[in-house]
């Protein structure tokens, strides 16, 4: 008993075409949703990240650079 398989070249190309269409659709979807659209139109300027200089600092600025409390920075 010998097995014989029906081959369909058209069916094979249709399957390959569907796989390619799926890959291309996924790529286009990713490009549209995540793609780089260039520089944003807003400008935050330089944000100071030193806690004593930032306007968003949690602590109030101390009068002496040693960051100690008391009279004269003691």
Order of helices and strands: H
Spans with pLDDT under 50 lasting ≥5 residues?
none
Distance between termini?
A: 100 Å
Shape: rod-shaped
Average pLDDT for all residues: 76
Count of distinct strands? 0
| DSSP summary: helix tally | 1
Description:
The protein is mainly α and 74 residues long. The chain has one domain (9-73). Helix content is 35%, strand content 0%. The relative contact order is 0.06.
Properties at a glance:
single chain; 74 residues; mainly alpha; 1 helix; 35% helix
Short structural description:
With 74 residues, the protein is an all-alpha fold. It has one helix and no strands.
List strands and helices in order, with pairings:
Layout: H1 9-34
